[in-house]
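Protocol check, entry for the methods section draft. Step 1: assemble the input record (protein sequence plus ligand SMILES). Step 2: submit for complex structure prediction. Step 3: store the structure tokens unaltered in the notebook. Ligand used here: zinc ion. Step 1 record:
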Amino acid sequence: MTDGCAICSRAIPPAKLVYQDELWSVRHSDETNILGYLILQSRRHILDLSEATEEEASSYGSVLCELMSSIRKTIDCERIYTFSLAEMVPHFHVHLIPRTGYMPRIFRGRGVMSYPLQPVADPHLVESTCDRLRRQLRFQEIR
Ligand SMILES: [Zn+2]
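Step 3, stored output:
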């Protein structure tokens, strides 16, 4: 844990915690109104995968794969955008954003970066989406 880091210092509310093991946590984003927008974050404070342990590096792919499958089974989407920037919070985290068929064209592809942060999604819808996402995961470890 690193003092002052927004990820290290912030506990994930249980309703938004989709998956967690000793290496990774996955939460539903609380920015935007996009349901199924997940954030995969390392439990350790690292900037990017160049600092990952062998264990983190080898589990990363299967966790990401499992999350994407869960999103596909839960959200009717045409693409799942994944990226990591770590500019605002220098702690490794990956955005997984389902892009539905009804997302306006202006926000598709790189346009997703300008997707409005407000309004946020209805908290009840987020919770039920998280329940559905959790049920679709083959491994359901939450510690
Ligand atoms: Zn951190």
